[in-house]
Design brief:
Blueprint: H1 3-19, E1 39-48, E2 55-56, H2 57-65, E3 70-79, E4 85-94, H3 98-108, E5 114-116, E6 136-141, E7 145-155, H4 160-170
Antiparallel strand pairs: 1-3, 2-5, 3-4, 4-7, 6-7
């Protein structure tokens, strides 16, 4: 499947979610992937009640000054029918008000300002993959939770555009 199909699937999921009264993802975490030609192979999640120690750079400095109230991180692998595999990092960063969430998203969306630390690949029995944040997407749900997603190629040669599309679908994944 080319990236056009993945984009169409992501758009369809977005329309369905928006039609349900906002940018809410379906309850089944694999549902967002069903029509993309990708399937989730494995996933690991972690929940924390603070963010600064799980971040670096200017993002960490902001999170020290503007603490989050909750952080959920997920690492997952997705594969296509040709044997291609990508690893995807998704994080839900919850704040106690909309202004703090918006301030965090503004900084996080600027490449090179720091980031959240992904979960270790060892949780999925894969080597750690260096996340570049070049294949990235983000959104805000419920006004106070910023969702970020990054995707990297593991095997199969996914293009950067395709990895961007994977990240765009990943931000729709329901929070664990």
């Amino acid at each position: 499947m080319g990236s056009g199909g993945l984009i169409a699937a992501a758009a369809l999921v977005g329309v369905v979610a928006a039609g349900a009264g906002g940018l809410a993802a379906p309850g089944d975490p694999d549902e967002v992937w069903r029509d993309t030609g990708l399937r989730v192979v494995d996933r690991a999640t972690r929940a924390d009640d603070e963010c600064a120690s799980h971040s670096f750079g200017q993002v960490q400095e902001l999170l020290k000054a503007v603490p989050c109230v909750a952080l959920d991180r997920m690492l997952l692998t997705v594969t296509d029918d040709k044997g291609g595999t990508a690893v995807v990092f998704v994080a839900w960063i919850e704040f106690d008000d909309r202004d703090k969430a918006a301030e965090f998203k503004r900084l996080e969306d600027v490449h090179g300002t720091g980031d959240l630390v992904p979960l270790s690949g060892s949780l999925l029995r894969i080597e750690d993959v260096p996340f570049t944040a070049l294949n990235y997407d983000s959104t805000v749900v419920d006004g106070v939770t910023v969702v970020i997603a990054e995707a990297e190629n593991v095997a199969g040669g996914f293009t950067a555009e395709y990895l961007d599309d994977i990240a765009a679908v990943a931000v729709l994944t329901p929070r664990p």
